[in-house]
Structures are given as structure tokens and as C-alpha cells.
Sequence to fold (237 residues):
Amino acid sequence: MDVKNATVFITGASRGLGLAFAREAVRRGAAKVYAGMRNIDGFKEPGIVPVKIDVTDKASIAAAAKIAADTTLLINNAGIAALIEGPLAGDAEAQSKQMFETNYYGVVRVSQAFEAVLTDKPQAAIINVLSDIVWLPRPILTPYAASKAAAWSFTNQLRFHLKARNIHVLGLHVGFVDTDLTKGIDVPKSSPDDVVRQTYDALAAGKNEVMADKGTAVLKSTLAAEVPGYIEPPEGV
Fold:
């Protein structure tokens, strides 16, 4: 599916990767671009329509789906992250609940709400923003990793479920991206613009997954190894 002439709805699009998705969609000639966000006050971007949405609130999601009923490409980008001491930290359960509410249940809720919107289109697609953390042991990101692993599993089930309806589902896996979400974390980061370009190109090529940086591609390649990357990460990842 080509972004050109598509009507795109992106969650978490007020800044960072979501805003990069919106801007690139405009650049590629999308018919309309909706930027979903919790607070639309003061948002002004040429060619982009802000829509209020909170992915933790079903009523808010339903209202957004009604406004954007012409959507042909849904991008589930909204997400949160936080650091903890490790998987057995005292706040691990509380943090996990918070991560799952947005990173997993948010994807489920929005996908459910837009199902009818996408089903009546001759061609439609969903992009779910995932993470290399599903294959990379980083104890300080345990709740975030668990929520993204759940989102990956949901993406695979969703792809299979919607295939017969001609709704394509693309999973985007990427490591750290240079956005406000990763500000202050001293690690190599990918450019949001580069990640978005790769993702839209993969969608146009009909791919099911895109590994948007070298480290993520290396991790994915280890999954069939006797000692996969989620047990012993490769050097440099």
C-alpha cells in the first residue's frame, strides 16, 4: 500500500516519531493526515489535522474513529516508557500496569475502534510501532519490554486475522529513536525521519515487518540460533 492518496491516522503524533510519520505522509502526497494526540491546543502543522484521542479512554477513541471515518492507514504509535531497578523491583507491577495500559491495551483498543472504518475500504493497512526490546534483555526496561512483547504478539495475530479482509498489518521494530522519549539516555539512536522513510517504503513493498536499524536486524537474525539474542545479546547491540 502506498501512502500517496491514503488517509492516515497516527496516534501519539504531537511530537517525536508520530509527528515524523505525519510530516512524511504529507510529503508523500497523502490525501489527508490526522494527528492523534491527547491535547490539540496550539498544534499547527501544515496539511495535518489534529484529533483529540487518549488511547487509554474508549470513549475518546470512539470519538476519534468517528471523526476520522475516512482513514485507510492506521498507525498505532502512541507509547510510554520508564526505567526501573529491574524485574524484581518493588514498583515493577505498578509500572507494568501503566505500560500495558498504553503500549498494549492502547493498540488493542484503537485497532478495535478502527476495524469497521478500515474494513469498508478497498485497500487499508495498519502499522504498529514495536521495539527491538522484545528480543533484548534490558532489566531496567522490564515493564516496557513486556508491554512491547505483548504488542508484537497481538500484531502477529491481527495480521493473520485481517488478511482475508485485505487489511495489511506491518510491524515496525526499532531500537532507540532520537525523540523526547529517549532524551537523556546516552545510547546510539536512529533518526525519526529515517525510521519513518524505511517504514513507509516497507509498507509500499508489501512487507510484514521492518527492522529499522542495524542492531534490531542483528537481533532478529539470532532468533533461530542455539543461543539467541534474547539470552546472550550480540556484541555492539
In short: The domain at 7-211 is CATH 3.40.50.720 (Rossmann fold).
